[in-house]
C-alpha cells in the first residue's frame, strides 16, 4: 500500500472518530482521560511535547511551551505547525521530546508496534511516554466483540490489554511506571458516573473503560570494571618482602648446615 493511500485511510479514521467524541459518552471519556493526565504533565516545564490523538487535544493544562500535534494529512491538520508525516516515520530527532502521547492510535494502525518504536525513539531519557487505550476487560470491552461488526469508532479497533502493551514497551527498552484506569460507568449509563469513578479511581480497579500507561526509558547503568592485579614475574620472597615464616625457615636451614659442618670436622 502506498504512503498516500495509507495517509488517506488514517485521515478517514480520524474523521470518523470525531463523531464519537461529540457524543455524551465520548465527551465523558475525554474529560476523565484529561483529568487522569493532568497530574502527570502539570509539573513538567520547558522542552517540547508531541500528541498523537484521535480526539480533542489533552495537553491544554501542560506548562510545556511547545506542544506539537500530529496529523496524517494536511487536510486534517488543525494548525500550520501540525506535524504531518507517517506515524511510523516521525520527522523528529532522537530523544527530543519531554512528553509523547499516543491517544488510541495503537488500536487502529496496522503496524502499531512500529509507531510505538518511533514514539520511544523521540522520547528523551528524562521524558515520559503516555499511551491511552480502550480496556477490553472493562464493561464496554465485554460487548466490543459483537459491536465490532458495526464498524464504527471505537468498536472497529483492536483493543489490547495494558499487560500486552507492557510487553511491547519492554521490547523498546521502556519500563511501565504506572497504569491508571479511568471512566467507570454504571451498567446502564453512557457517562462516567461520579460515584463509580471515585470508587474505581480510589482502588485503581482494572475495570475502567480506558487506561493510561505511563512509561519511561529504561536506565542503562554503566558497567563496573573490576581491577585485575596481574603479575607477569613469578612471586619471590624478595618481591613480597620477608615474612616471619620465611625468616624462621631460613634460620633452621642455616642451623642444620652448621651442625653438619661441625660433625664433619
Automatic annotation (TrEMBL):
Domain Methyltransferase type residues, every copy: 69-131
Molecular function (GO) terms for this protein are:
methyltransferase activity
Q: Which UniProt keywords apply?
A: Methyltransferase, Transferase
User: What is this organism's lineage?
Assistant: Bacteria, Pseudomonadati, Pseudomonadota, Gammaproteobacteria, Oceanospirillales
Q: Which InterPro entries match?
A: Methyltransf_11, SAM-dependent_MTases_sf
According to the lineage, what is the superkingdom? Bacteria
Entry-linked Pfam families: Methyltransf_11 (PF08241)
Q: What is this protein called?
A: Methyltransferase type 11
Q: Which GO terms describe its biological process?
A: methylation
Amino acid at each position: 500500500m502506498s504512503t498516500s493511500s495509507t495517509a488517506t485511510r488514517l485521515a478517514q479514521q480520524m474523521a470518523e472518530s470525531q463523531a464519537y467524541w461529540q457524543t455524551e459518552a465520548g465527551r465523558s471519556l475525554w474529560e476523565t482521560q484529561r483529568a487522569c493526565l493532568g497530574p502527570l504533565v502539570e509539573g513538567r516545564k520547558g522542552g517540547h511535547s508531541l500528541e498523537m490523538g484521535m480526539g480533542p487535544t489533552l495537553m491544554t493544562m501542560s506548562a510545556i511551551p511547545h506542544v506539537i500535534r500530529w496529523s496524517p494529512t494536511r487536510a486534517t491538520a488543525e494548525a500550520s505547525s501540525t506535524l504531518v508525516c507517517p506515524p511510523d516515520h516521525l520527522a523528529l530527532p532522537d530523544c527530543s521530546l519531554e512528553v509523547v502521547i499516543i491517544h488510541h492510535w495503537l488500536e487502529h494502525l496496522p503496524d502499531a508496534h512500529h509507531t510505538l518504536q518511533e514514539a520511544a525513539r523521540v522520547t528523551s531519557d528524562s521524558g515520559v511516554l503516555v499511551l491511552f487505550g480502550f480496556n477490553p476487560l472493562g464493561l464496554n470491552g465485554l460487548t466490543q466483540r459483537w459491536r465490532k461488526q458495526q464498524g464504527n469508532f471505537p468498536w472497529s479497533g483492536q483493543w489490547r490489554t495494558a499487560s500486552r502493551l507492557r510487553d511491547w514497551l519492554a521490547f523498546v527498552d521502556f519500563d511501565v511506571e504506572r497504569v491508571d484506569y479511568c471512566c467507570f460507568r454504571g451498567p446502564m449509563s453512557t457517562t462516567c458516573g461520579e460515584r463509580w469513578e471515585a470508587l474505581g479511581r480510589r482502588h485503581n480497579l482494572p475495570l475502567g473503560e480506558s487506561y493510561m500507561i505511563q512509561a519511561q526509558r529504561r536506565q542503562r547503568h554503566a558497567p563496573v570494571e573490576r581491577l585485575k592485579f596481574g603479575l607477569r614475574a613469578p612471586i619471590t620472597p624478595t618481591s613480597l618482602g620477608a615474612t616471619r615464616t620465611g625468616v624462621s625457615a631460613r634460620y633452621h636451614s642455616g642451623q642444620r648446615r652448621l651442625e653438619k659442618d661441625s660433625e664433619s670436622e
